[in-house]
Design a protein that fits this description.
189 residues; mainly alpha; Tetracycline Repressor, domain 2; 0% strand; TetR/AcrR family transcriptional regulator; DNA-binding; HTH_TetR
């Protein structure tokens, strides 16, 4: 039956990512994917070890897609312009792909991604934006954590429909990114 469904690790990963965007990463199961392909659950186990592997693969796929969006957004930019482009690409990806984005937040076992540079690339892109602000360690790590937690918090609340104020979320987003730029420019040395 699996041969008729054309199962491959790549197709399973893509289908899981699409399913995650529709129903949430927590509802991606082997049974749900088997239904998508019209096969029995057992058909998957010749391609992947378990559900954890599928979710890890979705997390890595999503991280790679997000990295590509971020890299494209910041190319040739620096300072406030790069920070705003980075922030907008982050938010756009998270809102357009909620299940994939949620997968990027899953705790992963380092052994699961030891042979890929995708997570290191996300750090490199963040630090590329931060270069303009000339921060050294540990301030660089602290500032990068501020950006990640601010962006993640905002998009998580926005995606859940948590902003119930007449002011548009996009207007607040612009003010937040402008405020982050000012904060980073004046970061304590």
């Amino acid at each position: 039956m699996a041969a008729h469904a054309g199962l491959t690790v790549e197709r399973i990963t893509r289908a899981a990512a699409e399913l995650a965007d529709r129903v949430g990463i927590e509802k991606v199961t082997v049974s749900a994917l088997a239904r998508e392909f019209g096969v029995k659950d057992a058909s998957f186990y010749s391609h992947v070890k378990n559900l954890r592997e599928i979710r890890t693969r979705v997390a890595l796929l999503a991280s790679d897609e997000m990295n590509q969006a971020l890299a494209t957004a910041i190319a040739g930019r620096s300072g406030a312009e790069a920070l705003t482009a980075f922030a907008d690409a982050y938010r756009d990806y998270a809102l357009a792909h909620p299940g994939r984005y949620a997968a990027t937040q899953l705790p992963l076992d380092q052994a699961d991604f030891a042979d890929t540079a995708v997570l290191a690339r996300s750090v490199e892109l963040t630090y590329a934006v931060m270069r303009h602000y000339r921060l050294d360690e540990p301030a660089l790590t602290d500032a990068a954590r501020l950006l990640r937690s601010t962006f993640h918090g905002f998009v998580s609340i926005e995606a859940a429909g948590g902003f119930h104020h007449p002011r548009a979320a996009a207007d607040s987003w612009r003010q937040i990114t402008a405020g982050l730029h000012r904060l980073l420019a004046a970061w304590p040395r």
